[in-house]
Write a structure and sequence with these properties.
By secondary structure, the chain is α+β, with helices and mostly antiparallel strands. Strand 2 and strand 3 (30-36) form a beta hairpin. A six-stranded mixed beta sheet has the order 1-2-3-8-6-7, with helices on one face. The protein has a two-stranded antiparallel sheet with strand order 4-5. The protein has a single domain (6-128), classed as RutC-like (60s Ribosomal Protein L30, Chain: A), CATH 3.30.1330. The longest helix is centred in the middle third of the chain and has 18 residues, at 51-68. The protein contains two helices and eight strands, in the order βββββαβαββ.
């Protein structure tokens, strides 16, 4: 597989993987970031607060991984937002919009029955490296 690159991206500034997955994989010019939830990497505990606080923490975790991968929100091309309750879309969207404001990435948002640790929001990212 000549020309194929695949590197694990890991930072202590985001929650470490708690299963058989990586925080992110950098491959052939892209960065694929695993879904992040509102865990504070300093304490490894779920943060206190509602959807706004959880979304902010998720975006901080994603930002740390993007930086470690050598990229930024400006190079994010796709996100997927998983919400526990679609009625909280507006609050999540307001916080999300503060990070993804100029030429925002493509995005899907879905309501799911349950998320890890029963969090309110999880977001994954695909970015250019």
């Amino acid at each position: 597989m000549s020309g194929f690159t695949r590197d694990v991206v890991s930072t202590p500034n985001a929650p470490k993987a708690i299963g058989p997955y990586s925080q992110a994989i950098k491959a052939n010019g892209f960065v694929f970031i695993s879904g992040q939830v509102a865990i504070d990497p300093a304490t490894n505990n779920l943060i206190e607060g509602g959807i706004e606080a959880q979304t902010e923490r998720v975006l901080q975790n994603l930002s740390a991984i993007l930086a470690t991968a050598g990229t930024s929100w400006e190079k994010v091309v796709k996100t997927t937002v998983f919400l526990k309750n679609m009625s909280e879309f507006g609050q999540m969207n307001e916080v999300y919009g503060k990070v993804c404001k100029n030429a925002p990435p493509a995005r899907s948002t879905v309501e799911v029955a349950r998320l890890p640790k029963d969090v309110a929001v999880e977001i994954d990212v695909i970015a250019l490296a």
